Automatic annotation (TrEMBL):
<comment type="similarity">
    <text>Belongs to the 4-toluene sulfonate uptake permease (TSUP) (TC 2.A.102) family.</text>
</comment>
<dbReference type="Pfam" id="PF01925">
    <property type="entry name" value="TauE"/>
</dbReference>
<keyword id="KW-1003">Cell membrane</keyword>
<keyword id="KW-1133">Transmembrane helix</keyword>
<protein>
    <recommendedName>
        <fullName>Probable membrane transporter protein</fullName>
    </recommendedName>
</protein>
<keyword id="KW-0812">Transmembrane</keyword>
<dbReference type="InterPro" id="IPR002781">
    <property type="entry name" value="TM_pro_TauE-like"/>
</dbReference>
<feature type="transmembrane region" description="Helical">
    <location>
        <begin position="76"/>
        <end position="93"/>
    </location>
</feature>
<dbReference type="GO" id="GO:0005886">
    <property type="term" value="C:plasma membrane"/>
</dbReference>
<feature type="transmembrane region" description="Helical">
    <location>
        <begin position="43"/>
        <end position="64"/>
    </location>
</feature>
<keyword id="KW-0472">Membrane</keyword>
């Protein structure tokens, strides 16, 4: 599968996971230590700031990814997988 298509598919699945997850933590009973204007464990002012900027960054990121040499993201992802595997092995081996 081409890397751009894989990233796009992963983004869609991320949204499918994030929306119900956010709804669940919003439905949780409020904790007394939460700041004002919170719904469950979600700060509504933070949500109001983060969501628009995340949507803007998504478009910019997609345009940037289309300009990249396709080998670069593939190699970067391979390096990330090696680092994650090494950390998992180090943790498992103690």
């Amino acid at each position: 599968m081409p890397i751009l298509r894989a990233v796009g598919a992963a983004s869609v699945f991320g949204l499918v996971i994030a929306v119900p997850g956010t709804a669940v933590v919003m439905a949780a009973p409020p904790h007394p230590a939460m700041p004002p204007f919170s719904l469950g464990y979600v700060s509504l002012p933070a949500l109001a700031v983060i969501v628009p900027f995340a949507m803007l960054a998504t478009g910019a990121g997609a345009r940037f990814a289309h300009r990249l040499n396709q080998g670069l993201p593939r190699r970067g992802f391979a390096v990330l997988l090696v680092v994650v595997a090494a950390r998992m092995a180090a943790t498992a081996l103690g």
